[in-house]
Design goal:
This protein is of the alpha+beta class. It folds into 3 domains: 287 residues, no CATH class; 44 residues; 60 residues, no CATH class. 41% of the residues lie in helices and 12% in strands. It is built from 16 helices and 11 strands. The protein has a 3-stranded antiparallel beta sheet with strand order 2-1-11. Strands 4-3-8 form a 3-stranded antiparallel beta sheet. Helix 3 packs across helix 5, helix 3 packs parallel to helix 9 and helix 6 runs antiparallel to helix 9.
């Protein structure tokens, strides 16, 4: 990463560039920052980020008609979002990497390369947060500046040509990582692990050596050094030899403290809460619910926090104003939390939804056939205001087909 670019100092653009990079975790920091790529050293953070980025990457993005909620086809947009974004990246890799950066550093960027003739999006060019800079000196005309690695050439882009994912923002310009709130929790967890490591590395070596007589500070230091030298190279559990001038007593370790460290789930629960990941996915005890119920709750209540910023950003940058009035882009989660086929069949058979609406609820595109856009009904029910009339007609012998007795 080039902090000083040819022809200008980084401070000419942003006088607080170093503090911003440290706060966002792009540069390594020793002042307690737990954002950026360094946060992945924590196994709970790594697991939570992997779950969220994996779900964002694997669920396909579909285009729906705003009026009837049916799936429509915008081949160019769907190909970019679900198949291939450029000659190097698949759509899954792109969405996964964008989600990881947006969670860890608060921002994820991609430049939209458009067809010079039609203006339609042709591919996406991914940039890491360390390669991007937002110039908001004029908030009404924000400019994005991208500097590729090993290059001094800067690319200047307008907002309409940049896909910018940010899940939490208080100024609508820059995103902030949810990990900013987890410094104490992650620090507590790391302290517990460090204590365990110290115990297993040195816990069995602690002892008290009581010597006869009165020793000064230098004598006590010399005695400890001689004792450690005598025990150097001994394997764990090897016998300790002392003479009658000293008394050796091993230290006792309070195992209750170790039990507290190993059973402390507070930090893990806080990480799950801040990142909106179900606690059971981080090996925590789950509530008394089935896997289906937990999955539905996760998809319906947690993932929209990430889905909505993504889909609305894509609509703004990839669709024209006319298309935005007609269509909406959404994640298709029907493969995991969609309606069961039997439920869709019941709704269709009872005249609640039409055939193409049922296909949409199952993640299938509409057929467009006329008969698939009609409400169905069955002959086993009747409107209440027609019941008396139908019973009277049946009593007069007109409520049945006269040829019904001749049918098989």
């Amino acid at each position: 990463m080039k902090l000083f670019r040819s022809g200008e100092l980084a401070t000419d653009v942003d006088p607080n560039w170093a503090g911003s990079l440290l706060d966002e975790g792009i540069l390594p920091s020793t002042r307690g920052s737990y954002t950026g790529i360094g946060a992945l050293r924590n196994s709970d953070v790594l697991t939570a980020v992997s779950i969220l980025a994996g779900d964002i990457g694997r669920f396909p993005l579909v285009v729906r008609d705003r009026q009837n909620d049916q799936l429509v086809s915008l081949e160019n947009v769907e190909y970019l979002l679900n198949t291939k974004v450029n000659n190097r990246l698949t759509a899954y890799q792109w969405k996964f990497s964008m989600a990881v950066n947006a969670i860890l550093s608060g921002n994820a960027y991609s430049r939209i390369i458009r067809d010079p003739l039609t203006g339609e999006p042709a591919m996406f060019e991914f940039y890491a947060p360390s390669q991007a800079q937002i110039d908001d000196s004029d908030p009404a005309h924000i400019v994005y500046r991208f500097t590729p690695y090993n290059s001094g050439v800067q690319k200047v882009c307008q907002p309409e040509d940049v896909i910018h994912w940010k899940f939490f923002s208080y100024d609508t310009i820059r995103g902030r990582s949810p990990l900013l709130s987890l410094g104490q929790e992650i620090g507590l967890q790391e302290s517990g692990v460090s204590t365990l490591q110290k115990f297993f590395a040195d816990g069995l070596k602690g002892s008290i050596i009581k010597a006869k007589g009165k020793l000064g500070a230098d004598a006590r230091r010399k005695m400890r050094q001689d004792f450690e030298k005598a025990q150097a190279g001994a394997s764990a559990g090897a016998p300790i030899i002392v003479d009658d001038t000293m008394e050796y007593t091993p230290l006792e370790v309070d195992t209750n403290v170790l039990n507290l460290i190993t059973s402390n789930n507070y930090s893990t629960a806080q990480i799950a809460k801040a990142l909106r990941v179900p606690a059971y996915r981080l090996a925590q005890n789950s509530p008394n619910q089935s896997v289906k119920q937990l999955t539905d709750d996760y998809v319906q209540n947690n993932l929209p926090f990430y889905f909505m910023p993504i889909t609305t950003e894509i609509e703004m940058k990839l669709l024209s104003d006319t298309e935005r009035h007609k269509y909406e882009i959404s994640f298709d989660t029907s493969a995991v939390a969609g309606m069961a086929v039997d439920d869709v069949v019941k709704l269709k058979g009872n005249g609640i939804i039409m055939g193409d609406e049922g296909r949409s609820k199952l993640g299938m595109k509409a057929t467009g056939l006329p008969e698939m856009n009609k409400l169905e009904s069955n002959l086993n029910s009747i409107f209440l205001d027609q019941r008396d009339q139908w019973l009277a007609a049946k009593a007069r012998g007109k409520g049945t087909d006269s040829n019904s007795n001749n049918r098989d």
